[in-house]
Design brief:
alpha/beta; Rossmann fold; 3 domains; 5-stranded mixed beta barrel; 5-stranded parallel beta sheet; 19 strands
């Protein structure tokens, strides 16, 4: 008996056909199934149940598309930018008395002659792009993936049986070990946050990191992808979700725009969504998963292994030292910045996004922004997976397209700057704002930004109506005085005492900080019954002392308390951390006097 008839990685369509034949022998009827899954999804889910198997699948991007072969298995990590509706295709047909399938393929094959029995099935189309603002440290080396894939492909090609007719029930589900990186915390001890490593080993020097942000999704260098979805409920995926799709690649960069093929599917993509296959590859999705921040980390031990509070304290201390140095030894600003970086929307009550914590650093002008703002911006790119920056100038507001709009002439959603993924960090620089007049576009853009900041919602213009989409974006504002355009949750005067040279950070330390931030954000939190009364009494006392405090101010204090607790790796508020929050708030108000 020969080896396996296919392997899931380099011959996924062989796996599809193999499982289809098995399903037919078990009573599967294509004429009444309406294309329902016959076991393909479970087959690939089982194959990818081990994370090391997923790591063997090459990631599709503008670099790897040059060497990845069509009809092989690929991963595409991106954001759903548009949902193009459904398309019909010839899913199965009879060749004589034998049923065959075209599922997970672009071209529908069928024998010549009108007597062929054909079943028309349906699939969904998603237009996906690289996540806007995705930073390069989140990506695997294209050369490393290429070598890994080509080596594995060569091994599997020797094992593979050439013809489908030689298929056997034996299936090779042995996964090649990818070897995820070990724990970053085992390589980092307290006090080792900085190093004198050589320039080739460090994250960045002279204020400029070696890994900078990749071009935005609108760049000609980024690679969009048309993903075709099968056997998945419509409610499972929504606009702006960040998803990893694993499926069969169909792509021909040499394909002509208009090819007359008698075997082509007459029920192919509607004209309104046609895109040249040589420019926009197709991915026929077999399995998919929504991605969180931890999926972009190269080491995720803190997310999967229990850690003592001491580990959190050590990493927190090293990160705080780094942030304080960036901010000219302004320790208070560094404390508020850390709480801001750990914030996320964890609930909504009416129109209030619970958990958001926007920060406005004031007393920054053009000169200080070019020093501290630039350093901080680079540092955040090195720590967070998605970062974006917006210059708040009259010219920009009057000309930019911030909100997404539907263009019915091409039946496409035209993206705006604010169509970004949850978890994105957004810097708004108001230091170059000059007196001027906003036109109608500028007024609308200012409203969009303010609504995003206050409600964590972005308005989409569908021409005949407008719809708000909920989002979760961290917003950091730099300005000379308190921003009137962007009324942040926290306003803090920035008071640096000296200009520090940028510390050299080793990759291991940066990786530990990234895991720390992602883990803290993922922690649940509660206030124990023994402390609830203390917190309530303190809030009542604060309101009696300052009558200007509103419900939003009190809610902000509770959010800060949550962030303070999780920053130490704790899920229940302690009296110590609550008092730390009250003291930080007192110091902030003193600066505002």
């Amino acid at each position: 008996m020969g080896g396996p008839a296919y392997d899931c990685l380099t011959n996924p369509l062989g796996a599809v056909r193999f499982s289809f034949v098995n399903a037919l022998s078990s009573g599967y009827d294509p004429s009444s199934s309406v294309g329902k899954d016959w076991g393909v999804v479970d087959l690939f889910r089982h194959y990818f149940s081990d994370e090391s198997a997923i790591s063997q699948v090459p990631i599709l991007d503008s670099s790897s598309i040059k060497w990845i072969q069509p009809k092989t298995l690929v991963r595409f990590r991106g954001m759903i930018q548009d949902m193009l509706g459904n398309e019909f295709y010839a899913g199965a047909y009879k060749d004589g008395s034998t049923w065959k399938t075209n599922k997970y393929s672009d071209v529908s094959e069928s024998p010549e002659g009108s007597s062929s029995e054909m079943q028309v099935w349906e699939r969904r189309l998603l237009y996906c792009v690289p996540v806007p603002g995705q930073n390069q440290w989140t990506e695997c080396s294209s050369e490393e993936l290429k070598n890994r894939f080509l080596n594995l492909d060569g091994q599997n090609r020797e094992k593979r049986v050439r013809g489908d007719e030689e298929m056997t029930d034996s299936m090779d589900l042995n996964n090649a070990e990818a070897g995820l990186n070990g724990s970053p915390f085992k390589r980092m001890k307290a006090g080792e946050a900085t190093s004198s490593a050589s320039e080739s080993q460090v994250l960045g020097t002279n204020g400029v990191p070696l890994c900078s942000a990749i071009p935005p999704a609108t760049s000609t260098d980024s690679l969009p992808c048309l993903v075709k979805i099968y056997d998945s409920p419509e409610s499972e995926l929504k606009l702006n979700d960040v998803v990893e799709f694993v499926g069969v690649l169909t792509f021909d960069p040499n394909a002509m725009m208009d090819v007359d093929d008698e075997n082509s599917d007459d029920l192919s993509e509607a004209e309104s969504v046609q895109m040249p296959s040589g420019k926009v590859p197709r991915l026929h999705c077999l399995v998919h998963r929504k991605l969180e921040t931890q999926h972009f980390l190269h080491g995720s031990s803190l997310l999967t292994e229990p850690k003592s509070p001491q580990i959190f304290r050590e990493i927190r201390e090293s990160l705080m030292k780094y942030l304080t140095g960036l901010l000219g030894n302004d320790h208070i600003a560094a404390q508020f910045l850390l709480l801001h970086l750990l914030s996320k929307v964890h609930g909504r009550v009416d129109n209030v996004a619970v958990g958001k914590l926007s920060l406005n650093l004031i007393h920054l002008n053009k000169e200080s922004m070019s020093i501290f703002g630039t350093k901080l911006s680079y540092a955040l790119k090195s720590l967070l997976p998605f970062t974006q920056s917006i210059p708040l100038t009259i010219e920009y507001l009057n000309t930019a397209s911030l909100g997404p709009k539907k263009d019915y002439s091409i039946n496409r959603l035209v993206p705006g700057v604010l169509q970004i993924a949850d978890g994105t960090h957004l810097i708004l620089d108001e230091t170059e704002l000059q007196p001027g007049t906003l036109n109608s576009v500028g007024v609308e853009n200012a409203k969009l930004l303010k609504n995003l900041l206050e409600c964590q919602k972005v308005e989409y213009d569908f021409q005949y109506y407008k719809m708000e989409m909920a989002t979760d974006v961290q917003m950091l504002i730099f300005s000379e005085g308190k921003s009137n355009i962007m009324p942040a949750d926290l306003v803090l005067p920035f008071q640096p005492s000296q200009l520090n040279s940028l510390e050299v950070i080793t990759p291991e330390t940066a990786e530990a900080w990234r895991c720390y931030l992602a883990t803290c954000k993922s922690l649940s939190h509660s206030i124990g019954q023994d402390l609830q009364q203390v917190v309530e009494n303190d809030l009542v006392a604060a309101r009696q002392t300052d009558r200007s405090l509103g419900s939003q101010d009190l809610s902000r204090l509770l959010t800060m308390a949550r962030m303070m607790s999780v920053s130490y790796g704790e899920t229940t508020l302690s009296l110590e951390h609550w008092q730390m929050v009250l003291e930080l708030e007192r110091l902030r108000k003193e600066r505002l006097k």
